[in-house]
Design a protein that fits this description.
The structure holds 2 protein chains of 2 kinds. By secondary structure, chain A is mainly alpha-helical. Chain A has a two-stranded antiparallel ribbon. In chain A, 67% of the residues lie in helices and 3% in strands. Chain B starts with 6 loop residues before the first strand and ends with a helix. The chains are: A mainly alpha, B alpha/beta. Chains A and B meet through helix 9 and helix 10 of A and helix 2, strand 8, helix 3 and helix 5 of B.
């Protein structure tokens, strides 16, 4: 067959069997131009960065592992972990409230989300820092009785508390929307199946809805963690000595602004890259349910005595 | 637990917004009866089934399942909705098999079957696992316990879904077009499981387009159209010798 067709088209086209010849991709002049242009721009930027003495790479290296920078980094990590954890828990609560069929409950959650998503985080942070102007004393006790104690709000809302409260409350609004989006990705049939088995709404949520919502919640949450990590730089305005503030404190003294900002940037970049690894692991874990391979059985049995299909 | 297995419906009405889908439905299904419901789409046959399992609530009328008012309790002046726990308890006695299977994709076949007994009844895990094995074997899928729904064919998924409902040991099984979403060649395996089930004396209500199944297995047949029960009687009698003109017209189309 092969010889017949090749004879028909052209008899002499080299010695290799036509059917075995590799297929070569078309490279247009545009593609080559793209290569050349990108490489030139890259080299241009790189030489400028390396040869401009004002970058002061020596100073960058010197401060990269400076004690106060590392302490700032730790605080940044703490703020990220703490406010993400608390924000996610609060967000879960808000998402459940928002999907409640009791109208006032869902409206309350809706108002919260609108308020906290509709105003800048920076403003919210400053607001919480200055909350004592609004409520000078926080009293904890039983309403309508004299039992309870009053706490000085100014003392309670130390910069770091204000930072934690502000970031958490803001994050909760975003997480609520992400989680609710995940819930609504679970089909109506799943809820009906759970109901028809007589599952309580709590069991239904824990065993049916949340596990199935996870694949759509995890990637979005990963983005939020990365966003939050960088977003913590905002709390520097409250004077919390996180990564950026630590860098600022140093260059306020030494006037080496750019090198110290580079130190902060490099740390943000390193941490962001490190965070994307566990995110991809989690995504793999939760996509297990839709993977084609059985969990225990090593390979798919194509024919079998009882099932008689596949 | 009392074994009743009866369904009684009197003057059931149900509307979705302006559309009335059930108009004056009267049914009486005895314990152990195999009843097929047929009719054109939009006739309300799926809706009545969903009402019997509480997936929809009826607007008015009397609905007694297993001899009890379903989802409500009666006082002198009204029917009051039952608290969720009581409703859930009633639902455990009525199994439902869906057209689109609705297996939980995050659980293996075996975990799906165990979900009812373990998560709802709080039954011992080991015992449930043993029961799940037996049920899987009874639907011909003994070796598929560790497979996720996505790894099973439609027919296999539906058989697992039947086993999942059976695991709750219900008095009544409802089937909502169980073979409509299947490839023609997989329909037989699901019907075979249902036939086997029919011999065990459980009450079964089957909404179906499988006239062959109705003829062979059903005791009674209900033909519904436009929210009314048009004709009801012995399955073979209605299929071969329908009395109502509307039933005749429908059967001429489908047979």
């Amino acid at each position: 067959m092969v010889t017949a067709t090749s004879k028909e088209s052209k008899a002499t086209m080299g010695s290799i069997d036509a059917a075995l010849k590799p297929r070569i991709r078309l490279r247009t002049p545009k593609e080559y131009a793209g290569w050349v242009l990108s490489i030139l721009v890259g080299i241009g930027i790189l030489t400028s960065v390396l040869t401009n003495p004002n970058f002061k790479w020596g100073v960058v290296a010197q401060y990269f592992t400076h004690e106060s920078i590392l302490r700032g980094l730790m605080l940044t990590i703490f703020l990220t972990v703490a406010s993400m954890t608390l924000g996610t828990l609060l967000g879960l609560g808000l998402a459940i409230m928002r999907s409640s069929h009791v109208k006032p409950v869902s409206i309350a959650a809706n108002i919260y989300i609108t308020l906290f998503r509709g105003t800048p985080v920076l403003v919210q942070l400053i607001f919480w820092f200055n909350i004592s102007a609004l409520y000078p004393n926080l009293s904890i006790g039983i309403p309508f009785t004299n039992i309870g104690t009053a706490i000085d709000m100014n003392a309670l809302m130390a910069p770091i508390t204000a930072a934690l409260v502000g970031l958490t409350l803001n994050e909760a609004a975003y997480m609520a929307e992400i989680i609710r989006g995940g819930f609504s990705s679970v089909g109506k049939g799943q809820i009906e199946a759970a109901d028809s088995l007589g599952m309580s709404s709590g069991t239904r949520m824990r065993k049916v809805i949340i596990p199935q919502a996870m694949p759509s919640i995890i990637p979005a949450t990963g983005n939020q963690v990365i966003g939050m990590f960088k977003g913590t730089s905002l709390v520097s305005v409250l004077g919390v000595a996180e990564l950026l503030q630590s860098a600022q404190l140093i260059y306020a003294r030494t006037y080496e602004t750019i090198p110290l900002l580079l130190v902060a940037c490099l740390w943000y970049l390193v941490m962001t890259l490190l965070l994307s690894y566990p995110q991809s692991k989690l995504e793999q874990k939760y996509s297990r349910a839709t993977s084609r391979l059985p969990r225990k059985a090593k390979k798919v049995v194509l024919t079998d005595p009882e099932g008689n299909l596949r | 637990m009392s074994t009743d297995g009866t369904i009684l419906a009197q003057k059931i009405r149900k509307s979705f917004g302006p559309k009335t889908v059930l108009k004056d439905i009267n049914l009486q299904i005895a314990s152990g009866e195999i009843c097929c419901i047929i009719g054109p789409s939009g006739s309300g046959k799926s809706t009545i089934l969903r009402c019997i399992n509480g997936l929809e609530t009826v607007d008015s009328g009397v609905l007694k399942v297993n001899g009890e008012d379903f989802g409500y309790y009666e006082t002198d002046t009204a029917y009051h909705a039952l608290p969720p726990k009581k409703l859930a308890q009633q639902r455990t006695r009525v199994g439902m098999v869906f057209q689109s299977f609705n297996l939980f994709p995050n659980m293996t076949a075996q975990e799906n079957i165990m979900s009812g007994p373990v998560l709802v009844k709080g039954q011992d895990k080991k015992q449930s696992m043993k029961q799940a094995h037996e049920l899987l074997a009874s639907v011909g899928l003994a070796r598929f316990g560790d497979y996720y729904p996505a790894q099973l064919s439609g027919g296999q998924q539906q058989r697992v879904a039947i086993a999942r409902s059976l695991a709750m040991d219900p008095e009544i099984m409802l089937f909502d077009e169980p073979t409509s979403a299947l490839d023609p060649e997989k329909v037989g395996e699901v019907l075979a499981v249902m036939k086997q089930l029919a011999k065990k004396g459980m009450t079964m209500v089957v909404v179906t387009h499988e006239m062959g199944f109705a003829r062979e297995v059903a005791d009674s047949l209900i033909f519904m159209d436009d929210g009314y029960v048009i004709e009801r009687g012995d399955a073979r009698e209605v299929l071969t010798n329908p009395k109502e003109a509307r039933t005749q017209a429908f059967l001429e189309q489908v047979l």
